[in-house]
Amino acid sequence: MGEWMVKLIGALGAYGIREILSVGRLGIFFLYTLRGIFISPGKFWPVVKHIEFIGTKSFFVIGFTAAFSGMVLGLQGYYTLSKFASEGLLGSAVALTLIRELGPVLTALMVSGRAGSAITAEIGIMRIEEQIDALDCMAIDPYAYLITPRFIACIIALPMLTAFCDVVGIFGGYAIGVDLLGVSAGAFWDGVYSSVVWKDVYMGIIKSLVFAVLIIWICTYKGYYSGVDEGSFGPEQVSRATTDAVVISSISILVSDYVITSIML
Amino acid sequence: MIKAQITCPSPEHAVLELDGLFDRNSAHKVRRDSLKLAQKQGSRELEIDLTHARCIDTSCVAVLLEILNTVRKQGGRLKLTGIDENTARMISLSQLDEIFEDVIVAEKK
Amino acid sequence: MPPDDLIDVRGLKSFYRGRQVLFDVTFGIPRHRVTVIMGASGCGKTTLLRHLIGLKRTGPGQILVDGEDLGAFSEGLLKTYRRRIGVLFQGGALFNSMSLRENIAVPLKVHTKLADETIRIMAVMKLNMVGLSDFSEFMPSQLSGGMRKRAGLARALAMDPEILFVDEPSSGLDPITAAGLDRLLLDLRETLGMTVVVVTHELESAFKIADRIVMIDKGKVIVLGDPDAVRGCTDERVQQFLNREADTHQINIDSYYESLLDKEL
Ligand SMILES: Nc1ncnc2c1ncn2[C@@H]1O[C@H](COP(=O)(O)OP(=O)(O)OP(=O)(O)O)[C@@H](O)[C@H]1O
Ligand SMILES: [Mg+2]
């Protein structure tokens, strides 16, 4: 019995230390990435390349998701609002839901699932094939070369994709509400214009920026440290890192969404 | 660092005299100066005097090759003088002796 | 006059998670000479190389570069040291999202102000040295293993390093190509005065190119000296290696039996 307890406490202690160490490492990783902004090579073209990568990877999924979410919002919104005979508010309901909540969250989830996982896998493979060591040996800062451009690109790309998602979603709601269910087009757009204020847009942008940092931070970190803790560098470590990255970044998106909303409302 | 000095002994003939360390840190400067001069010389003769230059890495071979390309394209003639043994060896290490064969006129002893 | 040593390894011990793989390794790497590290598979050659290039921090023991302790280098000093070295990894470690030419251009782009055209010419020149000038636009995935290895060597040469570390350059190569690489390493020593450190199993090539041979067995240096001294060494293990004799008896027969037989019996 006693032995069992000691083992348990020992295991918990080891787990705790490991987690604390990895939190510390996560922080240092972020600082090195920030420092990478000021270290050669130049960032402009790599950033453009990565924006293109993140954009093309996620563009269609986001368009699809946004269109159908907007449509479903149109449907649900219509039936709820019609109970109170206020179908005219459909425009504001759809637009506010999308801009404040669904747009940023859906976009972030899609980007972490598509581009984020690809980034983790790419960097993880560079780790297990000693390509990161090779960069080190060429006196090239791997953070400045690999991580920083992806950070900047994601922070630029995510708000743009979010805006795209919002617009597509609103048109989806419009298609259902106006074309199918017969809400008047004037009332729909009037609702959108009159209810959406600067603060809502602002909130959406803040959210997407925070999500961008979370996604890219977690995904690059997981890739960069694939197999480092185990001390063995194989494909299995990369696949684990990729799954972890997507799961952890999705959870952090949803949690931080709640936190930001509760602070900003 | 490296110093480049241009002289024109005759209207048909320009000489670029290099003085200093010709390595990957100074190669871009040599390249800029000599390509400019090559452009100006057109189909006339360009001589690069390496007597006082020290080539220590293969970037100098690459730059010399680039100059040779430019000069040939304009129908001009390139002459390399004062090449030291080490540079010649780097040229043959890069298997470019044939290309530089009639360009190198005088080797440094 | 004996050649002075550029790198001095003193009493180096190395561990992977508590398991010791190098035991008090002591030897010197002479300046402007070719040093060959030989030994059976798994004896710790790659590990030793990783210490020499500063990827694995030295625990007990020292590596002195020009008399300075590599283990105590600050980040800045380590970068300066790494600008002087070129490394061919055992797996090649090419960046697989780039063509061969772009791979070789990476260090040149980051560390020099050379024009793009100059860099292109240099990359093709280096590829030509390893016999791959026809493949400059190929991606690493389109090459055979031996070709990837040679391309890795070309990239290690990109900056005309003062010290070149190569891990089994000729594994998987035919005798003709392998002889070409031996020739190249000697030419580099002659022309650019490179200090070359080669890890190899190929006896013939080792004796052809080496100025100094370090033979390692199970993590210990068993012979050190110029090729003649090694040939004349009477140590049983050395002779066995030189004469390509297989182990007559299983050295770890006890642990082999132990893992097969139930210990209770
Ligand atoms: N990442 C690692 N984690 C744990 N042990 C390792 C690791 N890398 C190597 N080892 C161990 O260290 C020892 C030496 O390995 P090393 O790679 O240095 O051998 P080597 O001499 O290069 O062999 P080869 O000629 O086959 O490449 C081996 O016993 C190996 O099991
Ligand atoms: Mg090895």
Short description:
Chain B has 109 residues and is of the alpha/beta class. Chain B has helices spanning 27-41, 59-73, 85-93, 97-100; strands at residues 2-10, 13-22, 45-55, 77-83, 104-107. In chain B, 39% of the residues lie in helices and 38% in strands.
Give the secondary structure arrangement, pairings included:
The complex is a heterotrimer of chains A (265), B (109) and C (265).
Chain A: H1 2-36, H2 44-83, H3 90-128, H4 131-137, H5 142-180, H6 185-195, H7 198-224, H8 235-264
Helix pairs in contact in A: 1-5, 2-3, 2-5, 3-5, 3-6, 3-7, 3-8, 5-7, 7-8
Chain B: E1 2-10, E2 13-22, H1 27-41, E3 45-55, H2 59-73, E4 77-83, H3 85-93, H4 97-100, E5 104-107
Parallel strand pairs in B: 2-3, 3-4, 4-5
Antiparallel strand pairs in B: 1-2
Helix pairs in contact in B: 1-2
Chain C: E1 5-16, E2 19-30, E3 34-39, H1 45-52, E4 62-65, E5 68-69, H2 75-83, E6 85-88, H3 100-111, H4 116-129, H5 145-156, E7 163-167, H6 175-192, E8 195-199, H7 203-209, E9 212-217, E10 220-225, H8 227-231, H9 236-242, H10 253-260
Parallel strand pairs in C: 3-8, 3-9, 6-7, 7-8
Antiparallel strand pairs in C: 1-2, 1-4, 4-5, 9-10
Helix pairs in contact in C: 3-4, 3-5, 4-5
The complex binds adenosine-5'-triphosphate and magnesium ion.
Please provide a written account of the structure.
The complex is a heterotrimer of chains A (265), B (109) and C (265). Chain A is 86% helix and 0% strand. Chain A has 8 helices and no strands. In chain A, helix 3 (90-128) crosses helix 6 and helix 3 (90-128) runs antiparallel to helix 8. Chain B is of the alpha/beta class. Chain B has a single domain (2-107), classed as Transcription Regulator spoIIAA (2-Layer Sandwich). Chain B has a 5-stranded mixed sheet, covered by helices on one side. In chain B, strand 3, helix 2 (59-73) and strand 4 (77-83) form a beta-alpha-beta unit. The longest helix of chain B has 15 residues, at 27-41. Chain B is globular, with a radius of gyration of 12 Å. The model of chain B has no long low-confidence stretch (mean pLDDT 83). In chain C, a hairpin with a 2-residue loop joins strand 9 and strand 10 (220-225). By secondary structure, chain C is an alpha/beta fold. Helix content of chain C is 38%, strand content 23%. Classes of the chains: A mainly alpha (265), B alpha/beta (109), C alpha/beta (265). Chains in contact: A-C, B-C. At the A-C interface, helix 3 and helix 4 of A face helix 2 and helix 3 of C.
